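Aggregate trends can hide what the representation actually does to any particular protein. For completeness, the protein is quoted in full, as a sequence line and a line of structure tokens.
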Amino acid sequence: MTVTDFSSALHAAFEAPDPREAVNRIKNVVAHELSQTDTRATVKKTDFFNHSFAPDLVLSWPNERERFVFLKSDTRPAVLRDDVEAIRKHDPIVFALDPVNENPLGSDEYSGPSREDDTLLADSRGMEVLIQSRYSEPVVGLASSAVLQGGRGLLTEREAEAMASSVAAGFSGAQRLDSGATAAAVAQISGHFDQRRTSRLLRFLGAVWVGSGGSASNFPGEQDVAGDLDGTALEFLMELPPIDDFEFWRRIGRPLTLEAISHLRLEDDSENLQYLVGSNLDILHARACRIIEHQQELGEDENSSFRWKLEREMLCLRGPRSTTYFAGKVDELKVEAQEGDGISLQELLRRAEQRRVPISELELATPTRTVSYATVNRDDVSHDEELLKLSKTFSSTAYVQTAVASLFGSRPLVCDFPNRTGKGRTAAKFPLGTFAPVALSLLTSLTDEERRAIDQLTRHYSEEQRQPALFEINEIRIDQTSGDPRSEASDRGELEI
């Protein structure tokens, strides 16, 4: 809705013959405006209108505090000043239904409140600038979301235009290591947001700065911007136009974990998600996976490609015939297993040979008997003549129920074939760069084309890159500024025990 559309809708709402219906329509129009400013916000109407102390609308977000919205139709500076004075202790949003032409809050360098509070005075023109700007410059969406959660000061058309252009230029500047454009964005952010949102936005710019090859010590703003990107900032980064830069995503992803990525809320499998995961296959670790077979969806392209996606708060790899879900623990696999019979010994050996994965032990079962087979030293048993002779004594109904693959020489991956589930024994975790291709190769029957597609997907991963925490992992967050010599492991907050 444009400013003209908003004005027309608001005027039509005021013209409703029933006062109660008029109030309801006014709130609906404003609620729609706020929802467009931040699509993640939930807007709840109250039973009050133009009240001195009770809000007209309440904004809420997951894991964020609520924010009260007070609608004001009288925009005369003296009246607005008194209204704000009465409610400013709530750090509210005062939404003026008519344009605000003068600043009733008292002027300072950033046109902010005259007191140290986080009150935001906004009108429809300011909100519309942010709404329209996020379509042409998606990164502005991060600022518009932060405005509703923790914006402060005055937000009319002029201030919103300055904010939108500065944030967009600051993001571009951080990518180019342009200190001038980045510094201007830092100043704009520092003046128009509360402390929490200021810290969040500066961490975002700081992460882009460092991801683009800059040094944190040279970031043109507060030096205390180190820290992981929060979910909201990372989600906006995923939704931006594709950034095809391996080193950028590798630097961005160093502090991330599988759990952090799994909890992102994305509408589709964005290209930036592919870049982020593909550039960090060595530090994203999972302990368990489960493969669910599926039929091709209507309208889905017929090919053998694999794509990273987020479903049911899990990172998954969707292929043409199956989807593989990854989790840090077995009980975090939020998808029911598809029960099967297991696979034949010959099929297991064929799959293991194709990926050159050693099998240290396995369990064969018939409807009435179960046999476990392993060597004393847990060597590769897949070529044992004794095993082949033993398998011939079983009927054709004998299936392999489980097998243990040895990754990196000694890290045991237990494969449950009836459930198509793989998990590390004890606390073992594996980097996705190895876990994904090995699990898919052992737990499913891949075509040559599908194997090539998986190899292409994991092309940036090599075992030489992998960090040491692959077995018996305890996840310990380390202060990155502590100077701990074990910095390689502490980059992702995990140390090998």
Observations:
- The chain has 17 helices and 19 strands.
- The two ends are 57 Å apart (CA to CA).
- Confidence is low (pLDDT under 50) at residues 107-115, 467-497.
